Structures are given as structure tokens and as C-alpha cells.
Amino acid sequence: MKQSRAYPVYTVTKKAESSILNGHPWVYMDELTAVPDTEPENGALVDVVSGKGRYLGTGFLSLESKIRIRLISRNANDTFDEAFWRRRVEYAWAYRKTVLGEEDLACCRVIFGEADQFPGLTVDRFGDVLVTQTLSYGMEQRKAMLFPLLVDVLRKDGQTIRGIYERNDVALRAREGLAENKGWFVLAGEEHPASTQTEICENGVYYTVDFENGQKTGFFLDQKYNRRAVAKLAKGKRVLDCFTHTGSFALNAAFGGAAHVTAVDVSQSAVDMAQANARRNGLADRMDFVCTDVFDLLPSLEGKHDYDFIILDPPAFTKARRTAPNAMRGYKEINYRAMKLLPRGGYLATASCSHFATEEMFVKMLKSAAADAGRQLRQIEVRQQAPDHPILWNVEETNYLKFFLFQVI
């Protein structure tokens, strides 16, 4: 290396070296070939070098995770002070302003983990509240510095931010040796909002977001523009929205002029929230809501052709590579049933939010489902997550959402 370094040094395999040079920021436990004589503290900054001593990057050490080091920089001249992290936040926010435009900044993902070089950190904005999820030990240690800085950057850009709510009630934290928790992050000298619910407007549709109890951070922002694409096709259609959650696709379809929309979810609390959102938007007269299991509902509708547009936006059926084949059987079942239900010329929107259900696997499944259903698929659009959830081509984990729009013929 060209200069003396202040950080403990970890040497990695040729495979890890190649991965890092190709842009991936993770070093796995079994990729380490040499470690310091004295083990650093969990979350410490450490250097990663090749077998020949070449500097590869600096990152957070995670002593309890299979992902042992998460790189935050490959620049040997970086100093990891507050100014460094401020630049990172400013860069992430400038990107959102460019790709979303001012009109969509009020509810967006501000930080998307590794895609923004904040490993393990998610920050979503719902109006004047930021909701965070911290899934790496190194980020957890630095949030006392980082969160006020984040608020300061947004406020200096003219954004109103009144509080930060942490949604760390996720089992993944245990892999980092972190306890689960949720609650308001205390900003020095400030009072947080009294309520853990807020209202947002996306694509002209209003929603109540329960960021204390809702799934993930309270609302799925990644389908923003896919919902808009559904609204464009929905005019005059009889729509069945499966796995509606809090009604986002159903409401966009109704807002787009659907003749009628039926929204289905297995969770009664989700259905209740969707109904409340429909009333808030003045759309309840063209919508009905059903609390049932979609896997039971779709076979019961066979032969009725009550709908000419079906939307399938299920939760992730797999969160591991080993269970992906079983998940594809589940995806095939609902897509096959939907294709059978639709009349010739009907429309299908279908999605998968699992990184492990790859696009190649999903396309193969759709072709098989169409063949079994005796249908052909006329592709309208293939879409992905909204650009505030950016995809790094060399970090495949950032590419997770598949969204297809078809006419079934």
C-alpha cells in the first residue's frame, strides 16, 4: 500500500478481491484469509486488502454476521468524519431531486442502503416525518451523528422535517447482534409529532400511513410509478386487486376511472385501512373490499369472468435462494388462475418483490402459466422499482422488483 493506514487490516481471497473490484461492497466471513492479531470492536472501521497487500476499500466490521465487512469507500484518501457523511447525504438527496422532480419528493425513499453507500440503512420520507430502519452494526453506532445531519441537509434545502421514527422491529437485526426496537429518535431540543400516523399524497391519491405498525416502514414507495401505469389502463375496467395491503393499486385504478374495483387481502386490518383510504379519496362508491386468502379466492371465481383487469402484487414468497423453487410454484398458481379468469383481451398486472425470484425465473414461470392456461401474453410494459430505489448493476441485491403489464389474448 502507498501509505500508512490507521485501520485494522483484513486480507481477502481472490474471489472477494474480484467481487470488490467489480463494485460489490460485501466481504463474507469465509472470504477472509488473514485477520488482525487483536480483534477490533464490532462496528469498527477496517481496511480490506488483497493477498498481495493491495488496498481494496474500507468498511464496517460486523462480528456476528456472515457478511463480515460492508465497504463504505474504495478511496484510500477518504476520512470518515461528519463532513464525509454529509456529502453522502447531499449526494443522495440531489439524486432524488433529479430523478423524481419536486412534485414527488414529499414521499420518497431518501436512503436505499448499499445503493446509496449507506450499508444496512433505509430512510423513507412521509411528508414531514422520516422513518428509518437500521440493519448493520456500523450504521447503528453512527446514527447519533448521522440522523441529525440528515435532518439538517433536508431542512437547508427547504424541506419541513418534524421528526424521525425508527422501525427496527425486524428479525434481521439479530444477525448483527442488535436488539429489535421501534420509537422516536430524539433530536436535541426538539419535540417529535404526537401521532405515529400521517397522511401522504402519491399520484393524486391520499393515504393514511401508520409508520408505527404498518409493514416495513409503513408504506411501499417502490411501486409509485407502477401504480400510475395501472391507473392509465384501468379506465372503464372491472378490476380485481389481489394482495391489496392498504389499497394502493386498487385506489390508483379507481382514481384512473375504473368502472369498479374489488380489493382483496388476507389481513382485516389492511382491508380496514384500504376502506378508510377509499373514503378519504371519495372512491368508496366504486369499490368493495374482501378479507380472504387470494389462493382460495381465485379458484372459486373460475368460469365467472367478472373482471377484465387483475392485479397481482403479493408479498415476497421467498427470502432465501434455497426456497425460490417453492416460491415460483406459488407465483405460478396465482398467475395461472388470474389468466384463466380473464376474458380474451383482458389485462394482467403481475409483480414479485423478491430479489431471489429473479427476472429469468419469473419470466419462465409466466410463460409456463400462460401455456397451462391456454393463453398468450401480449406485453405492454416491463417495469422495476421507482428510481428512488436505485439499482446498482454490480450489486444484484439492489435489483428486486419485477413488474409486468400484459394483455391476455
How would you describe this protein?
This protein is of the alpha/beta class and 409 residues long. It folds into 3 domains: 65 residues, Archaeosine Trna-guanine Transglycosylase, Chain: A, domain 4 (Roll), CATH 2.30.130.10; 117 residues, Transcription Regulator spoIIAA, CATH 3.30.750.80; 189 residues, Rossmann fold. The chain contains 9 helices and 20 strands. A 7-stranded mixed β-sheet has the order 16-15-14-17-18-20-19, sandwiched between helices. A 6-stranded mixed β-sheet has the order 2-6-5-4-1-3. A hairpin with a 5-residue loop joins strand 4 and strand 5. Helix 2 crosses helix 3, helix 4 crosses helix 5 and helix 7 runs parallel beside helix 8. It is globular. The termini are far apart. The mean pLDDT is 95.
What descriptive keywords fit this protein?
alpha/beta, Archaeosine Trna-guanine Transglycosylase, Chain: A, domain 4, six-stranded mixed β-sheet, 409 residues, seven-stranded mixed β-sheet
